[in-house]
Amino acid sequence: MVLSSEEESSLVYNHKLSSVGPSYAIGSNEAHNVSGLDLAMKLHYLKVVYFFDGQAIEGLTNMKIKETLFYFLAEYFHTCGRFRRSELGRPFLKCNDCGARFIEAQCDKTIDEWLEMDNKAHMNKLLVSQQVIGPELSFSPLVFFQVTNFRCGGMSLGLSWAHILGDAFSASDYINRWAQIVSLVLSNDRKTTMTKAQNRKHHEITPNPGPIPTRNLPVSLKRVDPVGDHWIAKNDTKMETFSFPISHSQITLLKSQFSTPIFESLCAIIWKSIAKIRKESNPKTVTIFKNNPKRTKGVLANSQIISSVEVDFSLVETETKILASLLSEKTTIENTQINEIVENDQGVSDFVVYGANLSFLDWQEVDLYGLELQSYKPNFVSFDVQGVGENGVVLLAPGPKYIDKFGGIEEMLMMSLILPQNEVCEMKFELKKNGLLSE
After folding, report:
1. How far is it, in rounded angstroms, from Cα 337 to Cα 329?
2. Tens-digit pLDDT profile for the chain (439 aa)?
3. Taking the domain 222-434, which CATH number applies?
4. Upper half-sphere CA count for residue 177 (Cβ side, 13 Å)
5. Residues annotated as region Disordered (predicted)?
6. CA quadruple 127, 133, 139, 141: dihedral positive or negative?
7. Looking at the whole model, is its pTM more than 0.90?
């Protein structure tokens, strides 16, 4: 059933907005200097929604959640700050205890009813803030938490995350650490909570980098028209998000057909499918985003590995296995180049990275289901990326566990595509032909 925009907005109602900051004052003299890679991602945002049933949140009232955030944000106090600009125009983060935004809302549906609705990717935008940074930097929160209480007694937790703070791996570490704080607060172990918070107070404050040699613009980076202090890029192409599961049996079949890892195999199929749809303008350059195995868990940073692949031949006439091998073995890492380009002009220029080229995001190691409340994992996790360029994004992430027909527990993957709206119908047709999307 298709709902009007008015009917959609009425599904989630009774919004209450407040702010929550760290449990002790940092003051206003601390500054967190973001890196060139952070600044390159400043026009992108991550939107994640976690669904929990009533057992997981028993005794966890909205007021109690705010109390846990109070302690939690003392560990990551810089996420409560606000951006400013230096005399040269470079953005930096003023750690002034302004806080994260906390939104409370209600929904008269059950979680099961919500998850059975058509166009879930679109509907889930009602469960997480769509706010971006700006146009007034000094008044713009970087993190939004939205708690929506459902009729069944369950809850969704929406996390809106400014990508300039860190990549998806960092965002996951961040929210999963909050769940650990919840356990400590509910067990009345506030002393341990505060001790850990104070021990973490001064991490990640770094000096401004010095001058860096100029290089050519890396292919994974697209310079856009200046956005000023309203940090979202203009995109005249209407984009649409849709998601679908990759079952254990589908994964097994793909592994028998390809010698490459599952991520590269799936992306090769989609790359070729998009080439068929776009014809002359088919994407001969793609960008790949993967976890950095050297990253420090719990430290917020844009440390994911960004690489590119360029071809000079017809994608449609090329075997999918060859494309998968290219994605696996012939990538050019561009992190250093991106950092140098952005640092060279003090972060004043504006860029799009996701969707600058067709972008493949490997989130298999993002611990989406590691957010446990009172030993209960989420029933389902929805995710989206805001600020994607017109070339689109293909995202592979963990899915929920399920019980197979023999009573065993198996895991699935979730694939999410963010594409121009006029390509979605053809893309779904191609996915069905390749056995990735059910009829």
Report:
1. 20
2. 556 667 777 899 999 999 999 988 776 678 889 999 999 999 999 999 999 999 999 999 999 999 999 999 999 999 999 999 999 999 999 999 899 999 999 999 999 999 999 888 889 999 999 999 999 999 999 999 999 999 999 999 999 999 999 999 999 999 999 999 999 988 875 555 555 544 444 444 444 444 445 468 999 999 999 999 999 999 999 999 999 999 999 999 999 999 999 999 999 999 999 999 999 778 999 999 999 999 999 999 999 999 999 999 999 999 999 999 999 999 999 999 999 999 998 889 999 999 999 999 999 999 999 999 999 999 999 999 999 999 999 999 999 987 776 777 788 999 999 999 999 999 999 999 999 998 6
3. 3.30.559.10
4. 21
5. 195-217
6. positive
7. yes
CATH 3.30.559.10 domain span(s) along the chain: 11-187, 222-434
Q: Which residue has the tokens 């592979």?
A: 396
At the topology level, CATH places domain 11-187 in Chloramphenicol Acetyltransferase (3.30.559)
Q: Mapping DSSP to helix (H, G, I), strand (E, B) and coil, where does residue 107 land?
A: strand
